[in-house]
Amino acid sequence: MAAAGAAGFRLGQRVHAAGDPRRSGTVRYLGPVDGHSGDWVGVDWDGGAGGRHDGSLAGRRYFAAAGDRSASFARPSALSAGIALPDALRLRYRVDDFTKEEEDEMYVFSTSQKRVSVELVGTNKVRDKLKNFDELLCASVSFMGVSSAGSPEELQGLVPNLRQLDLTGNLISQWQDIFSLCQALPSLEVLDLTNNTMENDFVESPLLKNIRVLVLNNCGVTWELIEKLKVPFACLTDLHLIWNKLNIITTPVGKFVQGFDTLRLLNLEDNHIVSWDEMVKLSYLRSLEQLHLNKNKIKHVRYPSNLPSSGPLGDVAVPAFEKLQVLLLGSNEIEDFPSVDSLNLFPSLMDVRISDNPIADPAKGGAPRFVLVARLGNVKILNGSEVSARERREAEIRYIRLVMGKAESSDPEVLKQLHPRFAELKAFHGIEDEKPTSRTSGPQKMASGLISITLKCVGPSMGEKQPLTKKLPPATTVGKLKSLCESFFKLKDIKLRLFLEEEGCPLPQLLEEETASLVELGIGTGATIIVDEES
């Protein structure tokens, strides 16, 4: 038979190129190849490249590969079926003394050009510790060609106290190997299987209460498999599922994902998720505190409404995403303010990332940080930076000025729809509407309405100049301010750019719109503007 003739390889088996554990693939064909003697193994290499064809050769199709040039045929001797985990641990954390050849290479030349042996600091201590494998708590055997767990008794005897194991980039594909491994290591809590192409089914599974963190990044898993894994891994607190194309969440019973009662962190970054409706299916994960959705294609976010009066299991309904504190939405396609405003409805949300979205990019017509801070009333961390009490106060007052200066309508209902927190913030900060008439006139009236801003001149060809504090009318435009800066700092024939410094932002915000006034930009007393030159 072909399998026997191909040195014991089987279809679907994970292999790597002999001598190169980082070049791995899946066996897709076993047998003869027209025009070539002997048995061959057809391999579909990972990554969609690295081969010579798509599974067909000289007009004959042998198998269908993932990519146009991801497949090749190899002699069995050119491939490796991998090694067992205990062997990999011994290779990575070897306990033998250095060979004579290695010791001979460990020297330096003295001033008289004589060899002087080098004694590495702590060498003996490290050797003594590694001779006792039972002291090994964390181990990494990434990209070592591990294809099986090996003997459970041997593994347990070798590293009985292992707590963290990194198996990134190996050849493991069968869940029975993983179950066996977890049972053999009762102290194991963290298991990383990144870049192992796992099978999407298994027959029987034990209950693995010891595993708390499971990493399945780029493992080709489906949500149907995840639904099955919640049975053996019933005590998970962290589940990482990056790069698995999990854009659809299928629920075997009802509309919502059930189980995972202890899960606190779910990482679904970079999974081509388009619809927020798929995330609503996670509303009743009762312990979920962190949901990572960076690098997807989500355009809109809405807090779930019109949910059933009873929970998914018929119990009393709790609020959707009741315990969610961290929601990471960076690098998506969110472009509307209602998506931002809806984040206020999440009961416990405190940490939000929406950077690298159109709505948060002023260069693309999005909102600057102060607007986002003001619209997100409960957020304590925005885009990785803490929102201090001072920043919140200044952002909210500046936002009020911005809305008052650019109000699209005086109708309270329209304002509430466009700026849901505006009335609340205006009342909280005690800011009154400007009166159309006033008995105050002349210089006194003008002075009371001026804003005090600090100007810092930093252009390389402008020379060293002290910062200036000036009082300006709120209606001063960006273009007018540039002209004033030329006068203030005695600058000639230099094209200027103005930047607004904002607390919590690593980079100042460029003031691009020449006709925009200070009040329209939400700039008030205490603001700092950087005066630079165009490059």
UniProtKB/TrEMBL annotation:
> Belongs to which family?
Belongs to the TBCE family.
Transmembrane domains' residue ranges? none
The subunit structure is: Supercomplex made of cofactors A to E. Cofactors A and D function by capturing and stabilizing tubulin in a quasi-native conformation. Cofactor E binds to the cofactor D-tubulin complex; interaction with cofactor C then causes the release of tubulin polypeptides that are committed to the native state.
Q: Which CDD domains match?
A: Ubl_TBCE
- Annotated SUPFAM superfamilies: Cap-Gly domain, L domain-like, Ubiquitin-like
Query: Can you say what this protein is called?
Result: CAP-Gly domain-containing protein
Q: Which UniProt keywords apply?
A: Chaperone, Cytoplasm, Leucine-rich repeat, Repeat
Q: Which GO terms describe its cellular component?
A: cytoplasm
Q: Which InterPro entries match?
A: CAP-Gly_dom_sf, CAP-Gly_domain, Leu-rich_rpt, Leu-rich_rpt_typical-subtyp, LRR_dom_sf, SDS22/Internalin_LRR, Ubiquitin-like_domsf, Ubl_TBCE
Primary localization? cytoplasm
Intracellular or extracellular location(s)? Cytoplasm
| Residue ranges of every copy of the CAP-Gly domain listed in the record | 31-75
This protein's source sits in the domain of life called: Eukaryota
